[in-house]
Amino acid sequence: MTYEPDYSTMPLNTVEFPLPVLRRREDPIDTIHKIADDIGARPVTSIAEAQTAAYVASRLRRAGLQVWTDPFRTNALAGSGGLMVALLASASIGVWTYERLYALAIAATTSVVAMLLTNTLSRHFRRATSESQNVVATHAPIGPATRRVVLLVPLDTHQPRDPIGSREAQVAATVALLTMMSLEYIAPLPLPPEVRTVLLLIPVVYLLLAASAELWVRSQPFSSGAVSYAGSIAAMLTAVDDLGRLNNTELWAVGLGGGTTGAGLANLVKKYPFDSQATFFIGLEGLGRGTLSYVLHDVNERTRSADDILVDVFTEATRGVRAEPRIANFIPIVRPLTQAKRRAISIACLDHNGRVPLQGSTKDTSEAITPAIVEQSARLLTNAVRVLDSHGT
Asked: Which CATH class is domain 12-78+130-160+221-390?
């Protein structure tokens, strides 16, 4: 099906008619040094994230693409909400001894607060106070556009990883506490009172430990993000340089502000209503260290979520490139797209546990990068886009 790309939602003052350019392919490792070493850690909504956006925009413009930025408001990283949840849970246990109905009400409130602190819900209920931006670049095809390929890479870096648990795990603990309190109030389990008390205390102890770990994490420095995501940005820019204009495929290269929180992707799909059948999204996770892979699904999904066509495309694209299909032990940036039944897949360099090496670690520096793997990643991406372009209409 042939379609005319809809540019109606693009900022009118950013439409450009680029002059012919003489392409000079830059070494990907120079890109990594520029982003990871010169710019450094890039928390969401930070000046460093904006500097990375400006650098990526200049590189894409130099490659001959039509480039603009889409600013949007989002939240900086959340504070230590886990401490509030832990204190509320502790209060419910303290009140339980004197007034069980009030304790149940506090436990229910604790669960609601924990749910509101999850990344998904907090974006709806927290006021966006800081500014970030997506960098969007497009390259029109030589002939009629029959499909669109959108390359996605985060511009920001991860905060240090929480060693104990996620927001979702804290929600589960509060629900467990509320459930056990309800059972104890309505129909106590046939267990000794001491055992039932211990069962009530287990979720509270976990929440206190999780809050302590969260406070420790907030005090740690951010990663300079060489693998995640300077290597990914370098691979995307190299692939764009190598691809040039395609025959019937409109190429989009998008640097996502707030890529680690999902804010940039949410803004992108809200602003541009991409055709769900003719648009193919490729997410670039951490690249540059580990085994180059294309992700079929993550461990939280029972069935393959990656688009079948894209899986076949990447299988064909691995000719001459060492890459393999894997199951990821993390949530890929394209998860919201696969959940919405859009055509999407991620590529990543994974360790034996299915994780991106050094993600969120201060050891994620440019010295940890293997340049040959970044080159292989760019080649895999280039091959995949060309395979899609060769499929015709």
From this structure: alpha beta
